Each structure stands twice: as structure tokens, then as C-alpha cells.
TrEMBL record:
Gene3D superfamilies: 1.25.40.180. PROSITE patterns: MI (PS51366). Residues 69-78 have a biased composition (Basic and acidic residues). Residues 165-286, 328-451 form the MI domain. This is Programmed cell death protein 4. Belongs to the PDCD4 family. Residues 58-68, 103-114 have a biased composition (Basic residues).
């Protein structure tokens, strides 16, 4: 019996070695946990089955060890090789090529939720219903004011204009001022600018622009300098501007030959208006080498000597444009027309009318032309006046509205003119027809001319006929 048992154990040991060898060399997917559990349920194992079970457990442990070691070696190889090398695992996060639009966490942290709960992105104030609390002022803020009990003070800073931008900014302001003549608007615009150390150049730019313009522009410039002193400019700024213009007179003469005389009038007017210091001329006595500057200073000195009793030199530029009295304008137009009838020069008449600078009052010229024609005795005046109106109409100096108003005024006053000029009605009809033929007036204006009145003179023996 003992011999049989020993023989059976040796056979079992041999079988066990064969089974273990067989189990270890099998593939990983042959046995699984479910088969082992089914074997554990059965308690009636033979020694051969028990040896087979232990061999399976050992084989399973070896498989797990082999898998874990292979994963660690794969990770080390991925870390050593770049993501673009062929040894990298494309399914591994570290093996993928970097993408600019990949929003996944690189650190492996987080739960994969959107940042800030889906609020606070680009162009977004925050989540709906989110209320921000007041932030405490930072003492390191350069605008922090301790005396304001912690309140942050903000101040609007206007950048200083560069020298190249000054002329581009100032010229439109001055040109617009020549149109409206409101010094307050210029003052407001200048206060909004940061002229810096170049503030004095505003005066020189305004004067230089007026030298190239009309007499009314120079009058407006003198008023502007007088009103800005003490508000935007100082007397020293204006004095510095005139010092610069006296030095630049050789260049100013190239565009304006009369610049020395005009600049002298500007200096005299500025001193009278207290825009320049009273000792401005005294500083240049015996120190002027330029002939043009000396002529300008002499002109200013003469004007101040002649007008010593006057507080202001208001008439140094004359009274320009619509500021003149109506009587003065009528007198100037009558003088203009009389000179034209004598000389017959259309260019001179046009130049004189433009110098008056009253385009809104040109209907008065048309009225005076027609009255002179009605009061004339010869046909030469009629032809000259028609030629004058035709030239003014073609050049656009007299507009359609002004032409119609001038003729209509004569139409309305024709009965009164007939009292002084008996043949005024006949002359008027001839003149109107001639103007229409020369395309000076419209057909409607010609038809609006009143017809000559007729009266019936009946005597006892005329048979009721109308006498001419």
C-alpha cells in the first residue's frame, strides 16, 4: 500500500511539473477569473486538479507582472522620444502632436468642466446675475489721493500738440472764424487744445492768414487778439508772435508785398487794444537792421502818434462788409457807377463792388443802375448799364435773387419815379426788353414790368375816340 501511494505521488509531481510548464507557456487569454471561481466552488478536488489550480494562479500572477512591466517600459520610451518620433504612441496624451485649439488640461488636473462656469470669456462681463463688489483703492496707484479719504481721482490729460500738427489744427479754426466772427467759439476750441510752449504761434498764424485775405479778415483778427488776451493768450505771447513776424517779413513780402505796412497797422491796433505792452516799440529803437521791419515799426509809430487822443484804433482797417451804414454803402455804389459811366472799365467796377463785401446788398446796385438809366438823357448810358449787368450776371457776382429784387423795387416805385421823370415808363420798357434780349433777366421778370397807363380824353367833337 505504501509503495502504491509513493508511486502515485511521484506521478502527481511529474504531472504537476508538466501542468505548470504547460500553464506558464499558454497565452494570456486562455483562462480567466470566471473559470477559476467555478473551480473554487467545487470542493472535491483531486490532487492533480489541486496542483493544476495552483499552477493557474502562478501563471496569472506572472501574466500581471509581465503586463505591468511592459506598460512601464512603454511610458519610459515615450518620455525619452519626442511626440513626433515614430516610437511615440498616438493614443497616448503625451504622444499626440501639440494642437493650438486643444482645450484639454495639460497637467491632467480638473474635471473637464468649462472655465469660470461658462462666464467671463472674451467680451463678456461675467455670469448672469453676478454682482461685483467695490474694489478698495490701491495706495500704489499714481492717481491715489490720501486727502480724498481713499477716493481715486481721475483727470483727463490732453496730449500736447506737436509743432508739425499745430498749423494743421489752427488754420481751419481761423478760416472758420473768418466766416462766423464769433471769438467765444475760438476761445472754447483753443481751451480744448494743449498748445504747450507753442501757444504764441497761434497769433502769428492768424495774422499771416489775414494778410493774404481781405480787410474785413484783418479787422476780425485784430478783434480776436484783443478778446483772447487775458483768457487764452497773454501780452507776452502776442509780443513774441509779433517779434517772430518782424523777423519773417522778408518771406512774407513774397506773398504779400504790402506786409510791412499791414504789420505796422496790426502792431498799432494791438497796442491801442492793450493786447501788446506799451513799451513794445521802445524795445526796438536803434536795434533794427532789416529795412522791412523798420518800415513796419515806423508805420505803427506814426499811427499811434496820429491817434493819441483815441482809446482804440477802430478804423485802422476801415469798416468792413455789412458793418458799414446803409447810407455809406449806397454812396459807394453811386460813386462806383458814376466812375464806370466815365471810364467804361468793367474790371475796375467789379473790383470795387467786391471790395465792398456786401453780397446780400447787391440788389441796391441793380436798383441804382436802373434809376440812373431812367434819369439819363442819351442812349450810351443804357448800353453801358446793360453791359455792366450782363458782366456781373455772367460772373456770378449778382445772383438771380438779387437781380429780381432790384428790378422789383423799381417796378413798385415806378409811379413815384414818373412824377420826376415823365418818360420813365417808356425808358423802362425799352431797358427791360433789352436786358431780356441779352439774357440778363428772365421772361417772368420781363412780363412783371407794369404796362404804360392810358387815359381817355373825350371832347365834344371827337366822337368818343381815345387821344394818344
Amino acid at each position: 500500500m505504501a509503495a502504491e501511494v509513493e508511486q502515485w505521488n511521484s506521478a502527481a509531481v511529474q504531472a504537476d511539473g508538466v501542468v505548470v510548464q504547460q500553464v506558464v507557456e499558454e497565452d494570456d487569454g486562455v483562462y480567466d477569473d470566471e473559470e477559476l471561481n467555478e473551480g473554487e466552488v467545487n470542493g472535491n478536488w483531486t490532487p492533480q486538479e489541486k496542483a493544476l489550480h495552483e499552477a493557474r494562479l502562478k501563471a496569472k500572477a506572472k501574466r500581471r507582472l509581465r503586463k505591468s512591466s511592459s506598460r512601464d517600459s512603454a511610458r519610459e520610451s515615450l518620455s525619452e522620444s519626442g511626440p513626433g518620433e515614430p516610437g511615440a504612441d498616438p493614443h497616448s496624451p503625451k504622444g499626440k502632436a501639440p494642437q493650438n485649439h486643444d482645450r484639454k488640461s495639460r497637467t491632467g488636473k480638473g474635471r473637464g468642466l468649462p472655465k469660470k462656469g461658462g462666464a467671463g470669456g472674451k467680451g463678456v462681463w461675467g455670469a448672469a446675475g453676478l454682482v461685483y463688489e467695490m474694489e478698495e483703492p490701491d495706495a500704489r496707484d499714481p492717481n491715489y489721493d490720501e486727502s480724498a479719504q481713499g477716493d481715486t481721482v481721475y483727470e483727463t490729460v490732453v496730449p500736447e500738440l506737436e509743432e508739425g500738427q499745430l498749423e494743421k489744427t489752427v488754420n481751419p479754426i481761423v478760416q472758420e472764424y473768418f466766416e462766423h466772427g464769433d471769438t467765444r467759439e475760438v476761445e472754447m476750441l483753443l481751451k480744448e487744445l494743449n498748445l504747450g510752449p507753442h501757444k504764441y504761434e497761434f497769433s502769428s498764424l492768424a495774422v499771416c492768414l489775414s494778410l493774404e485775405g481781405k480787410a474785413s479778415h484783418r479787422e476780425l483778427t485784430s478783434r480776436l487778439l484783443s478778446d483772447l488776451v487775458g483768457k487764452v493768450l497773454s501780452e507776452s505771447d502776442v509780443a513774441r508772435a509779433f517779434d517772430k513776424m518782424l523777423k519773417d517779413l522778408p518771406d512774407l513780402i513774397l506773398d504779400t508785398p504790402e506786409a510791412p505796412q499791414m504789420l505796422g497797422q496790426f502792431i498799432a491796433r494791438a497796442i491801442a487794444d492793450h493786447a501788446l505792452p506799451m513799451n513794445f516799440l521802445n524795445r526796438y529803437k536803434g536795434k533794427v537792421d532789416c529795412d522791412h521791419a523798420r518800415a513796419a515799426l515806423d508805420r505803427a509809430s506814426v499811427l499811434l502818434t496820429m491817434k493819441r487822443e483815441m482809446v482804440r484804433l477802430d478804423n485802422v482797417w476801415g469798416v468792413g462788409g455789412g458793418q458799414r451804414p446803409v447810407r455809406h454803402l449806397i454812396k459807394e455804389m453811386n460813386l462806383l457807377l458814376k466812375e464806370y459811366l466815365i471810364s467804361g472799365e468793367l474790371s475796375e467796377a467789379e473790383h470795387c463792388l467786391r471790395d465792398l463785401e456786401v453780397p446780400h446788398f447787391h440788389h441796391e446796385l441793380v436798383y441804382e443802375v436802373i434809376v440812373m438809366v431812367l434819369e439819363s438823357t442819351g442812349d450810351s448810358a443804357v448800353q453801358l448799364m446793360v453791359k455792366l449787368l450782363q458782366e456781373f450776371w455772367k460772373s456770378g457776382l449778382i445772383t438771380l435773387d438779387q437781380m429780381n429784387r432790384g428790378f422789383q423795387r423799381v417796378y413798385d416805385e415806378l409811379p413815384e419815379i414818373n412824377l420826376d421823370v415823365p418818360h420813365a415808363q417808356t425808358i423802362m420798357e425799352t431797358f427791360v426788353e433789352l436786358c431780356f434780349q441779352e439774357s440778363v433777366i428772365t421772361k417772368q421778370l420781363r412780363d412783371a414790368c407794369p404796362a404804360r397807363g392810358r387815359k381817355r380824353f373825350v371832347s365834344e367833337g371827337d366822337g368818343g375816340r381815345i387821344k394818344s
